[in-house]
Each structure stands twice: as structure tokens, then as C-alpha cells.
Amino acid sequence: MPDRSPSILLGVTGSIAAYKSLDLIRRLEGEGISVRVVATRNALPFFPVLPAEVFSGHPVETDLFNPRRPREEGGGRVSHLALLDKSDAVLVAPASADFIARMALGLADDLLSTLLLSATVPVLIAPAMEEAMYHHPASTGHRKTLLERGVVEIPPEAGPLASGKSGLGRMAPVDRILEALLPVLRTVRPPDGPLSGLSVLISTGPTREPIDAVRYIGNASSGRMGNALARAAQARGARVTLVSGPTDLPPPPGCDLHRVTTAREMQETLESLFPSHQLLIMAAAVSDYRMKDPVTGKRKKDGREWTLSLVENPDILKGLAARKRPGQFLVGFAAESSLDPSLLLEKCRHKKVDLLVANDISRADIGFSSPDNEVVLVTPSGEFRTLPRADKSAIAGQILDAVVAGGWPGHPAPFQENADGHSRP
Ligand code: CTP
């Protein structure tokens, strides 16, 4: 198990995008990743050193030889190896055309290039430069050399550039950098936590059932609760597979993501993934109905009433519960317009879940399109616990803590100790 939090060495090089590295440091620290920054001399005019030192909690390193650094951190001698000792990966963001060339050539004329020549940990680069530079055969060749050596490129995006022109070359947004980095870090150092080594399958978002080529039956689920659960499970050490209906939210980085549209696609995907997972959280708002015969093409107006004929979709959760093996744990959600305890208990037992998470959809301040939620947890043995209104990520953490506290895996009975705050209806 890891004895410290994951850490990366962030190389910042000479590009206007260096100012964005500050946001990157904050987001990395927010993900529990410790950051040591090494900046090249060309980066310094663009890079807010003092705020970076405050956010990272470490001095920004620029010199190969730094007598002021403590001896255990390489002070008084060439320090690149000591800095690398504490790093699980090196991320160069922004990576200028000049610096990429120096990496490809194996130059070692400053701290960052020297470090990279010694690095045995994964290396990622987020290029930032003018479009013509990015496409120049020299740059293309250097990137190819680096990719062949196993360096991961986080490609730039198109948009306004420092020259005033528009084109490809802006450093990838922080979300995309995290999306590339986090899975790499998880492979090197899986986080330690109560769900370490376990695989968690989470369904999220709405489903869409086509009516004709342009219309569909959907619902207002945003996918926020499922994403929050995915992050909470990752933070507790789990590997997470996310099966997502159509949402506008970016998925949490590092999940194995499967996108689906209809309930039946979601069912097929979940059924194939379920056997290899220990915990299933069914947070998706699955459409209960689909068109009996979807219209081919787009239906034209004809001045008459249009009656849709709907048939029931399969109950995915119930089907999965019937296939549950010992050691697997199922969490279902219930969207209800009233939280009547006997109805909730009936749903929990009928769905054969180990834990039901119920929320009151009649309230405008929580649920579907709100950042907050308030839920009631229900177990098949009839124990209830209210998680008062809070941000969805806080609620997600409490749901997972309830699963863990129940003694799972192996003892799928949350609240079995009937600790304070648990009551019977
Ligand atoms: N669910 C499912 N398949 C469906 C409908 C719902 O797997 N076709 C899951 C949901 O993801 C949720 C749980 O079942 O975890 C309860 O969903 P909910 O909409 O509250 O209940 P329904 O089963 O649809 O029953 P009803 O709407 O009639 O109360």
C-alpha cells in the first residue's frame, strides 16, 4: 500500500500558457496529488512563481545546483535525482516547441531537461505553441521520437493563440490534462483506501428512447450524482467503471467510461460488466418506457392528434440482482414524490438491493438538476438513515462510507451494528 500521497513533478516551460499552470497546480492539489514545480528560465516571465510556491507548498526549482536546498532534498549537490525520487510521474505543461526539441535530443543543460534525461517514471507533455510551429516537420519529428520512447502527449486544442491568430496550439484545458494524468498515476500508485483493489460499477445520467429520428423520451437527470459517486469511489481506492447515459458533464478522469443511449443499451452493457465488479451503484435515471414502434425518419405534422404507444423497458437493476453472486453488493436509487417509509422498504426488498438511496423529487432544492441532494438510506432489514441536504459530492462520500461501514465486502449489511442515528420506521 502507498506510504504517501501521489506526487508529480510539474515542468513549466517558456510559453504564454505557463500562467495556466497555476490553475493546474490547484486542481492537482485538490485531487490529493502533491506537486513539485521545476520551471525553465524561459518560463519565468510567464509564470507566477510566488503563487505557485504557495499553492504547491514547495519552492519552484529552476537551478541545477541549489546550495540553499536541504541536503536530504539534494541541496549542495546536483539535485535532479533527489527531486525525481519523490515523483510518480513528470508532466511538462506547457511544453514549448523548444523544450520538446531539447527533450527529443536528450539535452541536459538545465534542471528540467536533466531531470527528464534521468526519469524512469511516466512522462507526459502538454504542448503549447503557434500552429505553424506545431505542424513544422521538425516539431512533428521530435514529438514522434518522444512518443516512440513512451512519452504521452496531451494534444493542444484550437482557439485564439498568443500571436493574435487562431488555430491549433493552445495548451489542453486542465480537465483534459487531468483526464490523461490521473489514470497514469493510478497505475503507478493506486490510492489507498477502504475500497482498494475493488471494482465498482456505476450507472449514471438519463437514458433516451427514440420516438423518431429527432425526438426522444428522456428525463432531467444531469449525471452529477453518478459522477460524484465515481469520484468518491476512486478517492477510496476503487477502480471505477462508469456506464453513462447522455449527459453534458465531463466524466471523472480515470474511469473506464462506457457511453450508452437507450435503456436496453444500458442493460446490455451493465450485464456484461457486472460479473467482474464487486459493487454496483445504479444511479442512472432509466426510462421506464420506450416506443413500441419508433417512427422511421422524422414524423411530419398532419394536423391530427398523435398518440404514442409505449411499452415497458426491462428493470435493469432487478435483472442484475437476480444474477448477484456472494460478495457482490448492490445499491439502488429511488426517485420518489413522497418518502413513505413502507413504500421505500417495499421498493428496497422488491428490487433485491442491499441498500436503497431514496430522494424526494417533489423538492426543487435537491435532486435532478440541483448541485445538492438529501437522501434517505434504506436497508432490506428495515433500517433507515437520513443524510441531510448537502453538496452531491458530500452525499456521495457518505453513501460510500455507509457501504464500507456495513462491513462490506463479505458482510453486506450496512448499519448492522445499529449505531447511533439509525432507526427503524
Ligand atoms: N431502474 C432500472 N431499470 C429501470 C428503471 C429503474 O434499473 N427500467 C433502477 C434505477 O436506476 C434505480 C432503481 O431502479 O436505481 C429505482 O428506480 P425508480 O425510477 O425509483 O423506480 P422504478 O423501478 O422505475 O419504479 P417506479 O418508477 O414505478 O417507482
Walk me through what this model shows:
By secondary structure, this protein is an alpha/beta fold. It has two domains: 179 residues, Rossmann fold; 216 residues, CoaB-like (Rossmann fold). Helices cover 30% and strands 22% of the residues. The protein has 13 helices and 19 strands. It has an eight-stranded mixed beta sheet with strand order 12-11-8-13-16-17-18-19, with helices on both faces. Helix 1 runs parallel beside helix 2 and helix 4 crosses helix 7. The protein is globular and about 70 Å long. 41% of the residues are buried. The site of cytidine-5'-triphosphate has 14 residues, from helix 11 and strand 16.
Keywords:
425 residues; alpha/beta; Rossmann fold; 2 domains; eight-stranded mixed β-sheet; 13 helices; disordered C terminus
Bound ligands: cytidine-5'-triphosphate
Taken as a percent bin, the fraction of beta residues is: 15-25%
The profile of the biggest β sheet is: 8 strands, mixed
Report strand order across the widest sheet.
12-11-8-13-16-17-18-19
CATH class descriptor of the largest domain: Alpha Beta
What would you report as the Rg, rounded to the nearest angstrom?
26 Å
Shape: globular
